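pasting for ref
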Amino acid sequence: MDRIWFRAYAFLVNNPGIFAIAAKLGCFLQPLHRFVAGSKIDPLLAWTATRETPVIAKESFRQYWISRRK
């Protein structure tokens, strides 16, 4: 299973367009995580058992960098 996940990750980071879509999707879906947090269907249960999910910044680093260059 690890091999499948690592190949999916490699595909994602090697395709900037798909990575951008995934990042936007993650920003959209993160607020919904609180509804499943701590339950058996929580995909991040092993990680969130001892930690809080970090809040995604309203502005990405790339957007911040572009705005600072102007």
